[in-house]
Design brief:
It contains four helices and two strands, in the order ααααββ. With about 160 residues, the chain is mainly alpha-helical. α1 runs antiparallel to α4, α2 runs parallel beside α4 and α3 packs antiparallel against α4.
């Protein structure tokens, strides 16, 4: 655990240390290195399951703290639902322990991404000021140079003063 404060953990609370969680996931998903031995796969499955179980309530709590219309909230909650399904998945005739482990690892990696993104404070893209809990804000899409729509938020008071770039 590493100290810090954020939307995910609240002021003065400790955050989960996700670096080792990522390393576990990357051991199964990374291109580097040989395929893990069956004994190592079983150990990784147990470790990744424990990490997913630890992250689910934290990501859910951080997502619930966001406004109802926040896209990051919606995506994180969808990932939490998928993670619950993956935790309950069992081996079938078509699945191997390695394929199950890789599915769990992708789920863990996604939860880590959501945990980090939700931990960042919300910032108004129009005035660059922080958006605090309970402050009136709205979703605000921006089109990047590559044509991708990036979801963000803006203070409602800043919307009439939009900047066009």
């Amino acid at each position: 655990m590493s100290p810090g404060s954020s939307a995910a953990g609240g002021q003065g609370q400790r955050l989960l240390d996700i670096a080792p969680m990522r390393r576990s996931a990357l051991r199964l998903l990374g291109d580097a290195g040989p395929e893990p031995a069956p004994v190592e796969v079983e150990a990784l499955i147990h470790r990744i399951r424990a990490d997913v179980k630890a992250l689910i309530p934290e990501v859910e709590k951080a997502a619930q703290a966001r406004p109802d219309d926040d896209i990051a909230r919606y995506c994180a909650l969808a990932c939490v639902g998928e993670a619950g399904l993956r935790l309950n998945a069992r081996l079938t005739g078509a699945a191997t322990p390695l394929s199950l482990a890789r599915r769990l690892a992708r789920c863990l990696f996604a939860l880590c991404e959501h945990y980090e993104s939700l931990a960042e404070p919300m910032v108004c893209v129009l005035c660059d000021g922080g958006i605090t809990d309970g402050e009136d804000s709205a979703p605000y899409g921006q089109i990047t140079e590559t044509g991708v729509v990036k979801s963000s938020r803006a203070h409602r008071g800043c919307l009439p003063q939009r900047r066009f770039r």
